[in-house]
Amino acid sequence: MPVEKPNPQQLTLRFKCHKTTILLLVDPHDNLTSIKAKLLEALKVTNVSEIRGQPLPTEPDDVLLGVPVDMNDPAQGWTDLEIPEVEDDIRKKGSKKSGVLNASPTGAGLKDGSILAIKFRSEASDADDLNMLDNEWDVVMPTFDDEEGSQNKETDAV
Asked: What are residue 145's phi and psi, to 5 degrees?
């Protein structure tokens, strides 16, 4: 992976899976599929072959992204970033219309330093499994407990 020289327009996105955080520098107008491909490439270059026992997918479409329900409090949970494509009966029958949220980080309202949860679609899972796991995001956010003065306590945000 060639070293990319940063420019002021690029965004740093934080991708989280359990306790793993990946920082990735992206162009705000890249589509999400190319960002997922960059994420997989960055993981492969650093010799990461699995996260939490789950092997990395080979296709960017097998990477699922989530955003916090409340950007100021990720402990409230996560929701899918990508909106399913819908058929547009007005223009042409059978044509697919992609949502604005699927176009780019800018279209999704992401800013520099935004947090995204990641999970992988496994080859063995079918549509029923994906529907059950839609709202399950394995993200552990570090917290600071004022009473105990410990920074090491962590909570699960699902």
From this structure: -100, 110
